[in-house]
């Protein structure tokens, strides 16, 4: 199956989303929100903007360390109902959400995925990456702020590992709540063969992820080895998102860009009246 990046040369760093670009959200991304809720929103605002519209979720505590940049604001009372996504879902025969406008997987081969985001107040958020290993087996890596223990869900139509996101505690010396999250997919693929399923069913799945009839002891369908390609990237509510990029060697690749990379990928504070 062809992909969004078929027959293209992938540079060492491949930016998929940059809220400071024009347009802030690439046409290759699709947005899904709950039309029945006025509080289910995906929009672009300045991070230091005081949000006055009633439909927005206000942080319980004022946030210091806002950026001077525009950011993608994603919110919803139910985080699984609202997200932005690039690429298509795995070919399970079920619709988990709207596919990319092209209906194609991303097809990126870089193993490192990096995101700059912050959650809205103390509300939880989640993100996930669909992948294919070097042998063509599909899997999903999901990371959530509410997850406490890494778990494996091998009996879904597409096997999934669910990992916690560590949120640093707020301190007086903290400069910003923004996070640089870096995932090495080559390392995470090995977790499909290491992690154990939860002792009881959890409710962290979407309707399309109901268990299949595979025998639990059969692990031949689980991804292993190394990354083949990335099929899709999805970021759920409740967070603000500045940038998503892929790289060959993580921070090492970024360091090789020198000062230009620091300016483009650095987080710069806004002049704010908040104290």
TrEMBL record:
Amino acid composition bias (Basic and acidic residues), ranges on this chain: 210-221
Stored InterPro entries: CFA20/CFAP20DC (IPR040441)
Protein name (database record): Uncharacterized protein
Region (Disordered): 77-107, 199-222
Ranges annotated as biased composition (Polar residues): 77-99
């Amino acid at each position: 199956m062809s992909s969004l990046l078929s027959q293209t040369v992938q540079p060492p760093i491949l930016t998929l989303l940059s809220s400071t670009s024009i347009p802030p959200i690439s046409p290759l991304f699709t947005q899904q929100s709950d039309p029945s809720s006025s509080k289910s929103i995906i929009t672009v605002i300045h991070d230091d903007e005081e949000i006055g519209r009633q439909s927005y979720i206000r942080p319980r505590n004022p946030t210091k360390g806002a950026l001077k940049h525009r950011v993608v604001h994603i919110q919803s009372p139910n985080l699984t109902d609202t997200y932005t996504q690039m690429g298509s879902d795995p070919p399970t025969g079920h619709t988990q959400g709207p596919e990319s406008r092209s209906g194609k997987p991303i097809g990126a081969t870089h193993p490192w995925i990096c995101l700059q985001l912050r959650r809205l107040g103390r509300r939880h958020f989640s993100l996930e990456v669909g992948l294919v290993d070097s042998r063509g087996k599909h899997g999903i890596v999901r990371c959530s702020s509410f997850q406490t223990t890494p778990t494996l869900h091998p009996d879904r139509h597409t096997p999934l590992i669910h990992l916690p996101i560590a949120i640093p505690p707020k301190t007086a010396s903290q400069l910003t709540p923004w996070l640089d999250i870096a995932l090495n997919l080559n390392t995470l693929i090995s977790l499909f063969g290491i992690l154990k399923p939860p002792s009881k069913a959890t409710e962290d799945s979407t309707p399309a992820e109901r268990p299949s009839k595979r025998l639990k002891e059969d692990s031949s369908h689980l991804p292993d080895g190394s990354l083949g390609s990335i099929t899709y990237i999805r970021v759920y509510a409740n967070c603000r998102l500045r940038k998503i990029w892929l790289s060959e060697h993580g921070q090492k690749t970024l360091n090789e860009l020198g000062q230009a990379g620091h300016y483009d990928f650095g987080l710069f504070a806004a002049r704010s009246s908040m104290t």
